[in-house]
Amino acid sequence: MQLRDREEEGLRKYGVNTERTDLTSLEWLQHLQEELMDASVYIEKLKNEIK
User: Fold this and answer.
1) Does the residue 14 lie in any domain?
2) Helices H, strands E: what count in the chain?
3) Measured distance CA(38)–CA(51) in Å, rounded
């Protein structure tokens, strides 16, 4: 359910979903890398709160 909600939110916010065909595989990988870097920022924040 969370994934479907997230996809619907992206469609509302950006007007596209993962069915889009205007990105190359390299561009998809770039998006993924940016999302994973964001996740690392969240991890560091939580680690610092725990310390």
Assistant:
1) no
2) 2, 0
3) 20
Tokens of 23: 């990105």
- Tell me: pLDDT of 11 over 90: yes
Tokens 């939580």 belong to which residue?
A: 46
Residue 13: in which H helix or E strand, if any? Answer: helix 2-14
| Residue reference for tokens 């610092």 | 48
Total of domains in the chain: 1
48 in a domain, yes or no?
yes
Residue 41 to residue 15: CA distance in whole angstroms: 26
The pLDDT tens digits of the residues spanning 12-39 come to 999 999 999 999 999 999 999 999 999 9
The pTM score is 0.76
34: containing domain: 21-51
